[in-house]
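User: I'm putting together notes for a lab meeting next week and I want to include a structural view of one of the chains we've been expressing. I don't have a solved structure, so I'd like a prediction I can at least talk through. The sequence is below, exactly as it appears in our construct file.
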Amino acid sequence: MGGNVNRRADPFAGQLFTAAVAAEKSKMSDILPEVMAMAQTRTAARKRVHTARRTGRRKSNNEKIASREDLFKHELKDIYTAEHLLMEALKKLESESTNPELARAFAKHREETAGHIERLEAVGESIGEELEVEECPGIEGLLEEKKTFMAHKPTKEIVQVFNIGAGQKSERYEITSYEGLIELAEKLGFSVAVADLSANLAEEEAALKTLKTLGQKI
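Assistant: Thanks for the context. Below is the predicted structure for the 218-residue chain, given as structure tokens.
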């Protein structure tokens, strides 16, 4: 900005330049805290994802489920693990997409998934339950299905078509899981849980709609 101004020959121009620089710095100082806060929140979410994945443990086969609240906690842990597994899977789906619009859709939903994990942790906190990554046989089965498919050495184009279908399968799993959790939460009077779970459900439904639309176009 104004790099060629001769501030010695024109003192007033120099003052204007100095004032403009100061104003620009002031603007940056005003928005910097907000930018830093957003960056820290995103980094923290990523750390929680990776830490949980590293420290995840298997569920005990002796886990007792004798009430609706027990079932709610069981299903909450299941979808929490599913979201973590899908965070990594979505990154792979994005990299395998040759269609830019599809790649953007997977990238966007990966960002949303980080938010889903945060909301689920908030749900856990609201009922005094600390969530950990354990196991999710449903999503693990879909991931295993992908490995089996890739052993057939499909072309990049066919992999992309397969991924659209696989993405829809996982979305339907998540949608059904969230619907069941919301129904349980309503009966248990978990109002905080209903709000957060409903927010996740809305984004899963939107992601499914996007994949179905792209599936018809690609």
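A couple of points you could mention at the meeting. The chain is about 80% helix and 0% strand. Residues 76 and 181 are 7 Å apart (CA to CA).

User: Perfect, that's what I needed.
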